[in-house]
């Protein structure tokens, strides 16, 4: 029996029960475990061959939105991903030169946010929520199922690994994600950041099978499905020129009945929030 004051040592079985242990996960700052990939990432490639005049034009449009060029870094990184499907070393240099930043400053941002991928992404990015509520409702089971379905029982697909050749039609990058802000509809997953609510392992398998077959099933809500690069272009702030397509993207239903149930109950019962109290602000400590 453990004495109440003793802190138990974490045992190996603790690790076995986490999704981190389900397959070879990748450290988000582990930029390129594959030596060939590392070579490609570290090479100072010809950015002009990768980022054409159209991309350059878009970069200038992004920069013009901000009073200070460096403020444009986040959409610029999305623009890079819309071209390459990840943030390469060339992409880092492309942003740095145009925003008057160092490569190190751009790298620091690109490796901090999980939406910036340091390895080439599949045609589709499938993000399974394995945060607390979704995990308890079956998110861990869905993630494990997709790991073996997209990989194999012997070699399950790891976090941010791709089934198929990255960028090729039908290729899918799998990742586990923190709370996707849809706990009322859990367990959820996203494809290219569009929601698929109330998932089960069977539904998730049918979804990735359809994606691999070149289909684009409709998300539960939100914009129609495109692909990872297309989603990245929208995150950079560029939408379809066709008005009907644009409207479908921005005006798609974004909330569900469950999302509004609390507000609806309050409205039906005449409940209102108490008024704000006139609470004095604490005195600032004098130095
Ligand atoms: S825990 Fe999954 S959406 Fe919040």
Describe, in plain words, how this protein is organized in 3D.
- It is globular and about 60 Å long.
- It has two domains: 35-110, Orthogonal Bundle (Arc Repressor Mutant, subunit A), CATH 1.10.10; 124-248, Glutaredoxin (3-Layer(aba) Sandwich), CATH 3.40.30.
- The chain has helices at 12-16, 35-42, 47-50, 53-64, 73-84, 89-99, 103-110, 132-150, 201-212, 228-235, 243-251, 257-269; strands at 124-129, 161-163, 172-177, 189-191, 194-196.
- A hairpin with an 8-residue loop joins strand 2 and strand 3 (172-177).
- A five-stranded mixed beta sheet has the order 2-3-1-4-5, covered by helices on one side.
- The longest helix is centred in the middle third of the chain and has 19 residues, at 132-150.
- It has 287 residues and is of the alpha+beta class.
- The protein contains twelve helices and five strands.
- The site of FE2/S2 (inorganic) cluster has 12 residues, from helix 8.
Summarize the structure.
A hairpin with a 2-residue loop joins strand 4 (189-191) and strand 5 (194-196). This protein has two domains: 35-110, Arc Repressor Mutant, subunit A; 124-248, Glutaredoxin. The protein is built from twelve helices and five strands.
């Amino acid at each position: 029996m453990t004495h109440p004051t003793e802190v138990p040592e974490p045992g190996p079985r603790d690790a076995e029960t986490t999704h981190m242990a389900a397959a070879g996960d990748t450290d988000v700052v582990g930029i390129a475990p594959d030596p060939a990939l590392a070579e490609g990432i570290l090479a100072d490639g010809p950015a002009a061959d990768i980022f054409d005049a159209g991309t350059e034009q878009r970069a200038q449009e992004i920069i013009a939105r901000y009073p200070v060029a460096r403020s444009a870094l986040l959409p610029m990184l999305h623009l890079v991903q819309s071209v390459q499907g990840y943030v390469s070393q060339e992409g880092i240099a492309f942003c740095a030169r145009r925003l008057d930043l160092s490569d190190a400053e751009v790298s620091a941002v690109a490796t901090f946010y999980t939406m910036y991928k340091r390895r080439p992404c599949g045609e589709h990015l499938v993000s399974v929520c394995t945060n607390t509520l979704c995990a308890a409702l079956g998110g861990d089971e869905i993630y494990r199922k997709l790991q073996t379905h997209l990989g194999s029982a012997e070699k399950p697909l790891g976090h941010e690994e791709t089934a198929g050749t990255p960028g090729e039609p039908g290729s899918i990058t799998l990742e586990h994600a923190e709370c996707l802000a849809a706990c009322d509809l859990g367990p959820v997953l996203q494809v290219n950041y569009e929601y698929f609510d109330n998932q089960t392992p069977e539904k998730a398998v049918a979804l990735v099978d359809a994606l691999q077959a070149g289909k684009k099933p409709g998300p539960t809500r939100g914009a129609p499905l495109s692909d990872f690069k297309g989603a990245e272009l929208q995150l950079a702030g560029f939408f379809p020129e066709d008005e009907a397509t644009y409207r479908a993207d921005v005006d798609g239903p974004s909330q569900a009945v469950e999302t509004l149930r609390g507000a609806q109950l309050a409205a039906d019962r005449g409940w209102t929030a108490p008024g704000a109290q006139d609470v004095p602000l604490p005195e600032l400590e004098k130095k």
